[in-house]
């Protein structure tokens, strides 16, 4: 058991977005996956989350994973670096009486993309797409809130990146947890070199 602190952040106006000054490098693009499959989604989830103990979806059968992806208001955007995935974001919009709230459900970079200044650009695009999500889903009222939660198991720059883009902390909580190991089944252990 370890103590895990979860930080919840939000943005209540699209004018609150503070875009990253660093754009995408040559050979990079961010693209919405129009017809994402559970297999591709799980590849992204494991590739990004294995280093940060993401395990909440690993036990889901394919049908449940697919159902989450098909929920109206859910979309995935992928950062590609020279044709290969370098990171992704999954957005989940939930319409309500006061407007649509969009959660940044998953966000992160693949290990080879970390430390290259790409997180700010991907998060800028993610927040911008969150604010206009209602335009892509029929019957969704205008977006009134974009939010995310991160925890002390996530990358060390996560909270700072969210705050730099204009999200503000509104709640923090700590609890004792036995985190799962997101690396299980990802790669076999490295053989020691002599």
Structure notes:
The chain has 194 residues and is of the alpha+beta class. It is built from four helices and seven strands, in the order E-E-H-H-E-E-E-H-E-H-E. A seven-stranded mixed β-sheet has the order 2-3-4-5-6-1-7, with helices on both faces. Helix 1 packs across helix 2. The chain starts with a strand and ends in a 17-residue tail after the last strand.
Strand residue content: 25-35%
Secondary structure category = alpha+beta
- Average of pLDDT: 92
Low-confidence stretches: none
Which H/E pattern describes the elements? EEHHEEEHEHE
Short description:
The chain is 21% helix and 35% strand. The protein is α+β, with helices and mostly antiparallel strands and 194 residues long.
Give the key terms.
single chain; 194 residues; alpha+beta; seven-stranded mixed β-sheet; 4 helices
Write the layout of secondary structure elements.
Blueprint: E1 2-11, E2 28-33, H1 38-49, H2 62-70, E3 74-81, E4 84-96, E5 99-109, H3 119-131, E6 143-151, H4 158-164, E7 168-177
Helix pairs in contact: 1-2
């Amino acid at each position: 058991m370890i103590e895990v602190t979860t930080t919840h952040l939000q943005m209540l106006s699209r004018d609150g977005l503070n875009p990253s000054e660093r754009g995408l490098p040559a050979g990079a693009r961010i693209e919405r996956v129009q017809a994402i499959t559970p297999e591709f989604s799980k590849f992204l989830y494991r590739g990004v989350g294995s280093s940060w103990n993401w395990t909440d979806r690993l036990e889901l059968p394919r049908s449940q994973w697919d159902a989450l992806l098909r929920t109206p208001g859910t979309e995935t955007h992928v950062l590609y670096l020279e044709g290969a995935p370098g990171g992704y974001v999954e957005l989940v919009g939930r319409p309500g009486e006061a407007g649509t709230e969009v959660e940044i459900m998953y966000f992160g970079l693949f290990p080879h993309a970390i430390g290259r200044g790409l997180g700010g650009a991907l998060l800028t695009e993610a927040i911008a797409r969150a604010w206009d999500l209602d335009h892509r889903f029929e019957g969704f009222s205008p977006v009134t809130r974009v939010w995310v939660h991160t925890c002390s198991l996530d990358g060390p720059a996560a909270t700072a990146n969210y705050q730099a883009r204009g999200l503000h902390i509104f709640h923090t909580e700590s609890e004792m947890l036995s985190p799962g190991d997101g690396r299980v089944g990802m790669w076999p252990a490295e053989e020691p070199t002599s």
